[in-house]
Predict the structure of NADPH:quinone reductase.
Amino acid sequence: MSKAIFIHETGGPEVLKWEDHDPGRPGRGQILVDQAAAGINFIDVYYRTGVYPSAKMPFVLGKEGVGIVAEVGEGVERFQPGDRVAYIGADGSYAERIVIAADLAVAVPDTIDDATAASIMLKGMTAEYLLRRTYPVGPETVLLFHAAAGGVGLIAGQWAKHLGATVIGTAGSAEKCELALANGYDHVINYREDDFVARVAEITDGRKCDVVYDAVGKDTFPGSLDCLRKRGLWASFGHSSGKAPAFEISLLNQKGSLFATRPSIYSYNGTTAELDASAKAVFDIVGSGAVKITIGQTYPLSEAAEAHRDLDARRTVGASVLTV
């Protein structure tokens, strides 16, 4: 019998329970994966706390992982037993074994190790769609990325710099600011010490930014809007500090005919072709060395609660990974 991290009720890290788990056999279009590692993401916190409701209770937490295909179900031609795969969007990655839809998985090149693969599916493909598709970043782009020292932020900073952009970030400590500066950012603002809106205006000589990428939410609103030039784009893709308050859409007009979007990876990678293209872009940029992955913390799968305590307390730097 394999094991997994179950949730029987929503709440703090203490609700994560290490229990026996039978993933079952793969059905049509599915594969059974012997896991090597699972990624940890803020979306896991949202499900743990009930911000995002689960369709069933109890449930196994987690959305991304990497491992070896142990068995394939009827009709699967995409993979065969022994293939090394990574996936995103399957429920229950905090487990030793998992059955997933084959169409959610991608082949992992030998140049990418297990911990890296587990940490870049969601974070790397989030950076990919934000920088290449939500707002196509290039040499003329001036951008602001909140949580610059987080898992997505560190990837996005390097990638955006590789694309030629002027890259501004925010972080919550001197240590995190230094880390972001070492990962592509031209300027990093310590939001605990400085007014990030005023600093952005100063850094850009009043021009402000073309796009603000914001996964923080409540603590950065409406400041994020005030960092945008006329007709700039606010891309709100998360809310680690809590949801941004509801606002009248006329506010966007008042602040300069701004655009606002709430993108998600599932909308951008909703087809197998989109998933494959996004994963290839991530694997290629990491494999080239242009983007280096910072895995700040690893934990045994059985200690997922401790990982969540660190995540809640913002003690993590870069990506966090659960190892099986």
Q: What stands out?
A: The longest helix spans residues 114-134. Residues 231 and 257 are 5 Å apart (CA to CA). The two ends are 14 Å apart (CA to CA).
